[in-house]
Design brief:
Radius of gyration: 54 Å
Helix content: 25-40%
Length: 1598
């Protein structure tokens, strides 16, 4: 115990306790694991306990209070876990002790059995019973083995028991330590709380001082702001005056240049119209040409297809003809294809030779023409000595090219004589080049082979010399890369080499097909690499073959060899499942993405591992594309956060802008470029104009904007006067670009926070706040964009929406934060309420009922004056019962209280919208205003609405209304469903309440219509009337509510796609498939396509003839009859669901109310529903696209496995894709554990945009129609997969009755066959295999472990495999061995019996196995063999059905000599001294039992039969029959035996029965059985003699 206790020292235990621990953590292993507080936490707790209340001396007390509480919670959890672990250990100890006792009892029992076996062995040895001794010794060895196993188990149990007891002691010690630590921690926590209260009081005092100081600072800022505002007003007035002066000056320039600008614009417009007209004509011509070319191409394609089909038919016919003649069609076609290729090559070679000849002739002609020209211009042959040398002319040409003089390289046939090296004329050069282009290939238009001077060897330019002769080697050269035959030879050689290396792998009759090695990981990916660094990765190759395999490295691809190096040491032969490692080293030299693979060669074939190298990239994304603030009151402020995430390894700068704004960098460049067009004076004027314009914007656009385009033109004109000869920059940016710096009036309700631009690093994220401050009632929509400095990063967009609600009363500070509060202390704060109403309102302030004992608002009721504010006092006095009273509003872990408070505005029943009735109406304009009536009581209302204009004209509108309080009410009048995916369901629950229990109006507000009578008290019926064809389901639609009761109503929202839209998509898909399948279009369709090429024609057709597309499509939709379960319908539905952009619908469901109960009504008399008492339920129904979709099987969610045989398995793979922008955690519903459906490959996470494959199996155990639903659950929605399948029992019937097939007798060395049939009675094809027990490997193993058959008792012999052939071949064979039986069909089988020696005990068992594992039938095969053509059957068995090791002949006792012969009838004859004249006799024992009855009636005689047969053989034999005779029939008759017939003959292939009956004679002794014998002789191809022993006895009847 001391040694075990030292294994866990206290210091180590105290260091392992976490500060914060999840309560849901469980022990990961049965061994105990205890954690204590760390020493640092203990020290901090001690220091806090020594100085309670001294907040200034210990500033960390506030920080250590929360960790102390968490440590206490951790200690309590640890104690609980220790107690649980202690109980588990106690149970384990008890269980181990019980197993130990059981083990000891088994050991005692085995010892007793050993003693008894030893006694039996001794007795057997005394009795010389060798077989029994061998069996008992085997039993003794087995008992010894069992005893050793029990001893080993006992030692293990003892060790486990000691270990468990030691663990219990450790737990007890640690539990005591933890209790001490817990008590000290509690004391320290109390001291820390006291210090926190003192610190809170001091903090409150400091905050009050800071508040006073802040108030003083605020007053100073107000004074300063007023002073600055006054200065700003004066400065602004001065700027306005300057702007007016500048405006007068600018008008002069504008008027002067306005005419010229308009004239230029008019000319440009006319030019652009002419240019546009030419372009339109060109486009129309091009479209016509394209359509004509398309038609021609279509005709050529159709002609090519027809030609190919004709050639294929011709080849097929030729192949059939060759096959009919008995030839080799494949060889003939191969030779024909080679001959065609050779002819094509010859034709191509001839065409190439013609082109080369033309090129040569053209060069020769040019050479001759140049030579003739040169001779004419040459003055004398002696001037050739004064020419420039080849080197000088070459250098001169290079100098001209470098100086860009426009000269080109001259061919030698264009050079002139005597150094007059001048460039050729342009026309001559163009002619030469054009001739070269026509005569030769475009790749041969070079002058590489031309010289730049005359040859130094005289005579080369004579007329009989051909300078451009092409050598024969050049003419006969091969194409680049070699001929097709040169390429095929290495390919065939490599294929032969690889075929010798690889070979098929077959194990247990199954050939391995697939990837020989699996790599882990599957992809070698080097991400975010830096050039120059070295990266290494290891991969593991796992042998996935059936048996031993080898692996060899081939290498990497060519473009990766400079960067990737693979280190691989071949491990040699690898067994299945073994693995080896490969080291891949990557050293990048270029900053570029690389992709390739590492190739290996295995024994079964080659495989490769993909390799990918990715550079650093910016991969940016936003966590949301839509921010919906919802509804907020005007004056409030709300904030949301959008997160910009970079998952790449490269950072960049970003900036958040409105979608309408341009980037600041682009704006500054535009301004700089524009300013370059102005002079210094113009810039000054522009600055003044810009300043004055900005001032006008601040004041609210009091003056009209200035035409900046005219100013730009003025600047251009001045620039032209100052810089003569320099054309104006036509690409200069106009002044309108500068004006983009001054933003237009945009919505200011939605703005960005402080962090709107900056730099985001690699693998980082930035949170940008979006602030919504509603100012004007109504919906607000703004689109933002995020631009990046990295040009490869696309611009990201997100939308922000919100709704501003205008209520007469609003709170500028919607949240009140009281900071940290202590119990039994009073905290107060003031709440400011504003109103924009022009009338006084009555306000009522309410606190939620859970906090009414701790919080109050004073006063509870008050009046707020028109367009003023009102202050309410909040008092908060928390009691110690606050955590229990607050309920859901109080978080016990963080101890934070969040509770709502309500401000109700009374006596408000009329509202005018929009804009609270304020607005502007233009002349001859009509505005529509909504008067909203919200009564507070059931009565009649008469009031007037007054509309006032700015000129104080009043228009009165008299209004009358009736307030109705229906007898029923709804718990919720508005239901906002969550965003629901297509074909999913969201359910909301509400109640229909009947609160009318009394006719008295004093107790409650009685239901009535206006001033009418009160509705009667009693059961009230309601009925919901949902809109037709809506995705809304209300359950129940009709119901009755008793007084004071309520009825539960469930409203379900299931968005679906319209059936018409799905049918349209299906029609389009079918039409596209039909177009793809059809080789060409109809002529009418082609003409229509030609007509559509002209835009003007289309417009005329649209005006003169109405479109018929809708009518045609409607007709097609009516003809298209698709069921929802059809593949086309489900595929169209899946396609539309993937592209669904979302939809928002708002439904109003009326609920009519009537007094009475529907059950009380007799017959079909309806209830009278009052239209005034109608309730209205408003439903907000947003529909979104599903986050998960099925991509396999055309998007179907119903998977039918079809008919699967019972006991077998059907597999289906389902591909699901995450189309949402975020990663999803996936969960699955539980399938029926006893059901046939199993999810084989579940997943836990599905990244955004990725696809995973789910494997489902269907394994029926019985004939059943199974159907289950598998729900794939995510946080967004649920995808339901419907699984269907039918389990079909695979039943077959056999034509053999009794499942025994007796082949009869056959001559040894010959064979005989027999047939039977199997019929498939099921509804699916059945794969069968026939197996013989004699060929089973499992039988050999079992036969080696059991005793020989002749040592067992006859009743214990269960072996069905009897005597086999000596040659080793099976004596029975069956064909076919395997195959498939179609439903309702039969299969014939032939069993052949081929013995090679004589025996009567040939037997085997034939098993019919279905689908490789189900045993259907077992057929016993029997047969016998003889050396000769006769045989005798019957009698009692005298030997075992196993061949003896030696042949023991039987002799007649009359020919025996000596006393050693004894012939008991039951045991058969035994050998004695042999006689040379002895004849071999075969014994037959026939036992007859005469049953003596107790009655006086005579008993029937005892009867037996013997069968004498003649075997049908193919051997030549002089005798065709077998004769038989039984000697001594007369003597047998005297003893009561009757034998019929005693002699006769048997034909081949037949048997004859010898009947034997016996009646006891009168002198028969009942105590001694009668034993007689007779000789039975058979004569056929040989003579055989049998000695038949008759043993008769009398037995008493029942």
């Amino acid at each position: 115990m001391e040694e075990d206790a030292n294994q866990f020292p206290k210091k180590e235990l105290l260091d392992n306790v976490p500060i914060v621990e999840d309560e849901r953590d469980e022990l990961e292993a049965p061994e105990f694991q205890v954690e204590f507080l760390p020493p640092a936490a203990e020290k901090g707790a001690d220091s806090g306990g020594r100085r309670p209340g001294n907040a200034d001396a210990d500033p960390s007390g506030k920080k250590t209070a929360a960790p102390a509480r968490f440590q206490a919670c951790g200690l309590r959890r640890t104690l609980g876990r220790l107690e649980t672990l202690q109980e588990e250990k106690e149970l384990l100890v008890q269980k181990t002790r019980g197993e130990l006792r059981a083990c000891r009892q088994r050991m005692e029992l085995i010892a007793k059995q050993q003693a008894s076996v030893a006694a039996e062995v001794a007795a057997g040895r005394e009795a010389n019973n060798t077989a029994s001794v061998g069996r008992l010794q085997a039993v003794s060895r087995r008992l010894c083995t069992e005893l050793d196993d029990e001893r080993a188990l006992q030692s293990q149990l003892r060790a486990a028991l000691l270990k468990s007891e030691s663990a219990m002691w450790h737990i007890a010690i640690q539990k005591g330590q933890l209790e001490d630590v817990q008590s000290s921690a509690q004391e320290e926590e109390a001291a820390a709380r006291k210090g926190l209260r003192v610190h809170a009081a001091e903090q409150l005092h400091r905050e009050e001082e800071a508040l006073k100081k802040a108030e003083r600072n605020r007053l100073l800022r107000v004074r300063k702001a007023m002073h600055l505002q006054k200065e700003h007003r004066l400065r602004h007035q001065k700027l306005v005056e300057d702007a007016k002066k500048n405006h007068k000056i600018a008008v002069k320039f504008l008027k002067a240049s306005l005419g010229r600008i308009r004239e230029q614009e008019r000319e440009k417009e006319m030019g652009s119209q002419e240019h546009m007209k030419r372009r339109m004509d060109a486009v129309l011509a091009l479209k016509n040409s394209i359509s004509a070319n398309r038609e021609t191409l279509r005709k050529f394609q159709a002609w090519g297809q027809a030609k190919a089909e004709l050639a294929e038919q011709k080849a097929r016919a030729q192949k059939e003809m060759i096959l009919a003649q008995g030839g080799d069609a494949f060889r003939h076609l191969f030779h024909q294809r080679q001959r065609q290729e050779l002819e094509a090559q010859n034709r191509a070679f001839e065409e190439q030779q013609k082109l080369r000849k033309q090129e040569i002739i053209g060069r020769i002609l040019k050479e001759e023409a140049a030579e003739e020209t040169r001779r004419k211009r040459q003055s004398s042959p002696t001037r050739a000595t004064g020419r420039l040398t080849l080197r000088d002319e070459t250098w001169g040409y290079i100098a001209d090219v470098c100086e860009d003089r426009g000269t080109v390289a001259l061919p030698r046939n264009l050079l002139q004589d005597s150094g007059a090296v001048s460039p050729p004329r342009a026309s001559q050069l163009l002619e030469t080049i054009s001739y070269e282009c026509v005569q030769g290939d475009s790749g041969n238009i070079t002058w590489e082979h031309d010289t730049l001077a005359e040859p130094e060897i005289p005579g080369l330019w004579k007329e009989d010399y051909k300078p451009n002769q092409v050598p024969k080697e050049e003419v006969d050269r091969k194409p680049v890369g070699g001929t097709k035959m040169d390429k095929d030879i290495p390919a065939r050689t490599m294929e032969q080499l690889r075929s010798r290396v690889t070979h098929r792998q077959v194990a247990s009759g199954h050939e391995f097909k697939g990837r020989p090695f699996n790599s882990k990981p599957k992809l070698i990916h080097f991400k975010d690499f830096d050039v120059g660094k070295v990266y290494k990765k290891k991969i593991t190759l796992i042998n996935a073959a059936y048996t031993i395999n080898h692996c060899k490295l081939v290498g990497v691809e060519e473009h990766l060899r400079d960067f990737v190096h693979v280190d691989f040491d071949p491990p040699g032969p690898m067994s299945a499942g073994m693995s080896c490692e490969v080291l891949v080293t990557f050293k990048p030299m270029i900053n570029k993405d690389l992709e390739g693979s590492v190739s290996f060669l295995a024994q079964t074939g080659g495989f490769s591992v993909p390799l990918k190298c990715s550079t650093k990239k910016c991969m940016l994304s936003l966590d949301k594309e839509l921010i919906d603030f919802g509804s907020y009151v005007v004056g409030e402020t709300a904030s949301r956060v959008v997160t910009l995430t970079n998952v790449g390894g490269l950072g960049t700068k970003f900036k958040f802008l409105r979608a309408s704004e341009s980037c600041e960098m682009d704006i500054s460049q535009s301004v700089a470029k524009t300013s370059s067009l102005f002079t210094y004076e113009d810039k000054g004027i522009y600055d003044k104009i810009t300043t004055s314009f900005s001032g006008q914007k601040i004041e609210g656009n009091e003056s009209p904007p200035i035409d900046m385009t005219s100013q730009k033109e003025s600047g251009k004109l001045d620039g032209k006067k100052r810089e003569e000869g320099r054309p104006a920059e036509s690409e200069g940016v106009t002044m309108s670009t500068v004006m983009t710096v001054l933003p237009n009036e945009e919505q200011t309700e939605i703005s960005l926070g402080e962090v709107a631009e900056g730099e985001i690093g690699p693998f980082g994220s930035i949170k940008v706040p979006v602030i919504f401050t509603p100012i004007i009632p109504g919906a607000v929509y703004t689109k933002f964009k995020v631009v990046f400095k990295n040009q490869q990063c696309p611009t990201l967009y997100f939308r922000v929406t919100g709704v501003a609600i205008d209520v007469p009363v609003w709170v500028p500070k919607p949240s009140v934060d009281l900071k940290v509060c202590a119990y039994d202390r009073l905290y107060q704060d003031s709440i400011l309420v504003h109103t924009r109403s022009k009338a006084a309102l009555r306000l009522k302030f309410e606190v939620c009922k859970e906090l009414r004992g701790h919080m109050e608002l004073l006063p509870e009721t008050g009046y707020i004056q028109a367009q003023s504010s009102y202050t309410v006092q909040l008092k908060f006095l928390p009691r110690h019962s606050l955590p229990e009273d607050a309920g859901k509003y109080f978080d016990k872990e963080s101890r934070v209280l969040e509770a709502p408070m309500t401000i109700r505005v009374a006596d408000q029943f009329v509202d005018v919208q929009p804009s609270d009735g304020f607005g502007t109406i233009l002349p001859l304009e009509t505005l529509q205003l909504d008067v909203i009536f919200q009564p507070t009581k059931a009565k009649e209302y008469n009031f007037e609405l007054v509309c006032k204009s700015e000129i104080n004209r009043c228009f009165k509108l008299s209004c009358r209304a009736v307030g109705v309080r229906p007898p029923l009410g709804l718990s919720h009048y508005q239901v906002k469903f969550a965003a629901t995916s297509l074909y999913h369901t969201s359910v909301a629950t509400l109640y229909v309440i009947n609160s009318h229990v009394s006719m008295s109006s004093l107790t409650h507000s009685a239901p009535r219509v206006g001033s009418e009578d009160v509705s009667p008290v009693g059961p009230t019926t309601f009925e919901f009337l949902p809109p037709p064809d809506s995705p809304i389901t209300v359950s129940p639609l009709v119901g009755t509510v008793l007084p004071g009761k309520r009825c539960l109503v469930q409203v379900a929202f299931r968005p679906v796609l319209p059936t018409k839209l799905i049918l349209q998509e299906a029609l389009q898909t079918l039409t596209k498939e039909a177009e793809v399948k059809s080789p060409c279009r109809d002529t009418v369709t082609q003409k229509k396509d030609l007509r559509r090429q002209s835009f003007s024609t289309l417009r005329l057709q649209g005006r003169d003839h109405p479109p018929r597309a809708s009518t045609t499509q409607a007709a097609k939709l009516q003809k298209l009859d698709l069921k929802p379960s059809s593949d086309e319908y489900q595929a169209a539905q899946a396609t539309l669901a993937r592209s669904f952009q979302g939809r928002f619908d708002k439904f109003v469901v009326p609920c009519v109310v009537a007094s009475g109960d529907t059950e009380d009504r007799k017959g079909t008399e309806p209830l009278s529903f009052s239209p005034h008492n109608t309730l209205y339920l408003e439903l907000w129904c947003p529909a979104v696209a599903p986050s998960l979709v099925v991509t396999s099987d055309r998007g179907k969610t119903i998977f039918n496995f079809g008919d699967i045989a019972v006991g077998h398995c059907g597999i289906k793979k389902v591909s699901i894709q995450n189309i949402s922008p975020e990663d999803l955690t996936v969960e699955f519903s539980v399938l029926n554990p006893s059901g046939p459906f199993i999810l084989l490959t579940p997943i836990s996470k599905l990244p955004a945009g990725e696809t995973q494959v789910l494997t489902l199996s269907f394994s029926p155990r019985e004939s059943i129609l199974a159907r289950e639903t598998l729900d794939i659950i995510t946080k967004r929605d649920t995808l339901s997969l419907t699984l269907m399948g039918t389990g079909v029992a695979s039943t077959i019937t056999c034509s053999i009755e009794g499942d025994v097939l007796d082949m009869g007798y056959v001559i040894a060395g010959e064979s005989v066959s027999s047939s039977f049939k199997l019929q498939n009675s099921s509804a699916l094809p059945i794969r069968f295999s026939m197996q013989l027990d004699s060929l089973s490997s499992s039988r050999r193993g079992k036969s080696q472990q059991r005793l020989p058959q002749f040592l067992a008792f006859p009743a214990q012999r269960t072996e069905v495999v009897g005597t086999q052939n000596h040659s080793g071949q099976s004596v029975f064979s069956v064909i076919p061995v395997e195959g498939v039986i179609d439903p309702g069909k039969t299969q014939d089988f032939t069993v052949t019996f081929s013995p090679d020696h004589e025996s009567r005990y040939f037997s085997d068992r034939l098993q019919v196995v279905l689908f490789g594992k189900k045993l259907s039938h077992q057929i016993l095969l029997k047969g016998a063999a003889r050396e000769h053509m006769m045989f005798v059957e019957g009698g009692d068995p005298l030997d075992v059905p196993v061949e003896s090791l030696t042949v023991i002949p039987t002799y007649d006792p009359e020919h025996r000599e000596g006393p050693g012969w004894h012939s008991p009838p039951h045991t058969g004859p035994q050998p004695g001294p042999l006689s040379p004249e002895a004849e071999e006799l075969k014994p037959i024992l026939v036992t007859l039992d005469y049953v003596q009855l107790d009655t006086d009636m005579p008993a029937p005689p005892a009867t037996r039969e013997l069968q004498v047969g003649c075997i049908r053989t193919t051997q030549l034999s002089p005798k065709k029959t077998v004769e038989f005779s039984l000697d001594g029939a007369a003597s047998l008759q005297h003893k009561g035996f009757t034998i019929e017939p005693s002699r006769g003959f048997v034909e081949r292939g037949q048997t004859k029965t010898i009947s034997i009956s016996w009646l006891p004679p009168a002198d028969f002794d009942l105590d001694h059985p009668l034993v007689v014998s007779a000789l039975l002789q058979l004569k056929g191809d040989v003579k055989e003699t049998y000695k038949v022993f008759f043993v008769a006895q009398v037995v008493s009847g029942p």
